Amino acid sequence: MSVDSISVVIPALQEEAMVAEAIGRALAGAPREVLVVDGGSRDATQERAAAAGALVLVSGPGRGRQMNAGARAAGGDILLFLHADTWLPSGYAGEVRRLLAQPGVAAGAFRLSIRDQGMGPAVMAWGANLRSRLWGLPYGDQALFCRRDVFWAAGGYAEEPLLEDVLLVRSLARLGRIALARQAVATSARRWQARGLWANFLLNQAIMAGHALGVPKARLARWRRQGLVSDPDRQP
To answer: N or C: which terminus of the chain has fewer CB atoms within 10 Å of its end residue's CB?
Structure first.
């Protein structure tokens, strides 16, 4: 019986400082491939990704567009979408296959940990894991994964200016359960540090509330650019 192959897709933009470590940890799980889809970096992201062992693709900017481009190019049975500042845990590939083999599971994600000490990051990670466990709504920094056919049946990523991961998870949830792995990814604290942990949390809730109330995503994106709110699934 053949083992399902895994393609790791990493969207990147100006990630020269982070991308090589993320690739190295992904390659430790012996995936079929790691694809870095660059959205127009002006730094050494592409060179460092290639040197670290990834296949580098280039697309137009926008994380939804980048991840769809990676999914189209990927050859694996399973797609795993990883942020460039996030580290996969040891043994992640076996956990991905175990969860997707369970009846009724459409997709999965990892628990979240934040690479920073202190009570604030621990509370943020606890809240993300509680949300994922109770409501089946992980965000993209938790390394979403699903089978290729399920990804396209869900419509792929919305090529919107924000909330692309939230929209995909909701589409996947209509096809089956969103499982939460026993292991945790370790993500950078930078998007919380950029504005402050609690201010970022409150602003994230504001953008989610605006989306739920039907505020157009273009307007939410304009608010984010103006600094009124921040996208809960986007790095600064």
So the answer is: N
Core vs surface per residue 154-174: b (16+ CB within 10 A) or e: bebbbebbbbbbbbbbebbbe
Strands 177-187 and 105-114: parallel
Residue 14 tokens, joined? 């100006």
Predicted confidence (pLDDT) at residue 58 exceeds the cutoff of 70 = yes
Pairwise pLDDT comparison (193 vs 79), residue with the higher score? 79
Quote the radius of gyration of the chain (alpha carbons, Å). 17
As given in the structure block, the two tokens for residue 162 are 């924000």
Beta bridge partners of 105: 177
At 208 the pLDDT is: 61
Q: Tokens standing for 189?
A: 């604290």
- Strand ranges, E, within the chain: 6-12, 33-38, 55-58, 78-81, 86-87, 105-114, 145-147, 177-187
Predicted pLDDT of residue 126: 83
Token pair of 157 as six digits = 């990523």
The answer to whether the CB of 176 falls within 8 A of the CB of 78 is no
* CA 134, 136, 79, 88 torsion-angle sign: negative
CA angle 164, 212, 216 (to 5 degrees): 65
Per-residue pLDDT of 95-144, as tens digits, reads: 999 999 999 999 999 999 998 766 777 777 887 888 888 888 898 999 99
pTM, full prediction: 0.85
Find, among 164, 155, 154, 166, the residue nearest to 66 by Cα. Answer: 164
